[in-house]
Amino acid sequence: MKVALLGAGHIGQTIARLLHASGDYQVTVMDRSEQALALLAREGIGTQQVDTEQQAALAVALRGQDSVVNALPYHLAIPAAHMALEAGCHYFDLTEDVAATKEIKRIAEGAKTAFMPQCGLAPGFIGIVAHHLAKRFDELHDVKMRVGALPAFPTNALKYNLTWSVDGLINEYCHPCEAIHDGTAISALPLEGLEHFSLDGVEYEAFNTSGGLGTLCETWSGQVRNLDYKTVRYPGHRDLMMLLLDDLQLKNDQQTLKDIMRRSMPATMQDVVLVFVTVSGMKNGTLMQEVFARKIFAQRDGEQPLSAIQITTAAGICAAVDLFREGRLPQRGFIRQEEVALPDFLANRFGQAYQQSRQVESIG
Predict the structure, then answer these.
(1) Tens digit of pLDDT for each residue in 209-249?
(2) At what angle do helices 166-174 and 254-264 cross, to 10 degrees?
(3) H or E element in which residue 196 lies
(4) If you write DSSP's letter for every residue of 206-268 in order, what string do you get?
């Protein structure tokens, strides 16, 4: 399969190496950064310097490709999907942006190719897990999805280091959050719904953020009492973010906030990804709960160290592409994450990255 991979950032480079090493994909990485592309070219991975924000240039570059894998910032998802449609390519991305996903769903209507957004960690893997658990219940009550990409060694007041896109981080902190409450679809405020819990001896907090549910609200509408997604952080992070976004009104000047964070908050490769899903309801007349909890740690021993967020995000989208290539997913139109069977995902050569993690509690 010929794959045009858009974006040569940390996640894009990891995706490129995984697909290239499998031997089943002819990968061409497209980015405007000559320096980023040179790193991959030295490893024998195909590259092409393209201004991915220019639709005309991108349309030309996509000709002859079978699939587009989009690892660009979320605000470029819609134009990239349009260009994939025009070029007759299948389309996969990592976006957490709700508006972009809705537009991509519209683009996919009647398309002869497949469109599968939200293929990362959250949205992505978290939705696959939640859907798998939810299907086991005769009557579904509550589905709680919690995910955090956290520094292993927090040292600042926010107890946070940059582990992924600043643009994506601020986007999910500032936009309304889909949820189902008492059987009714609602729009919840970001950073609200604060809760605390402990897992594996560590204290955490969780609060509403946008996008992590993917399409589950639509899929489970009318069948679940409560369904929500929250981002996990170390205690105290939420209050300081509310100070910055609300009290100092930086939600209305997001570029300044992003600049401050990039300038003053170090990135880290020493991170941990926490996945925590609880589902409760009735089974055979008994109220039951099932839990999936897992921690994935950075890999620092190889020639190319990988952060936990690189591992989990790249594994998610590579597994989706691989399962599609194998015919285990629909071959045209809009594909939801919950159409991926969890056993298929975990058995996949890329999805096995989640199997190699430390299981705090797992499912059968």
Answers:
(1) 999 999 999 999 999 999 999 999 999 999 999 999 999 99
(2) 140
(3) strand 195-199
(4) EEE-SSTTTTHHHHTTTTEEEEEEEEEE-TTHHHHHHIIIIIS-GGG-HHHHHHHHHHHS-B-
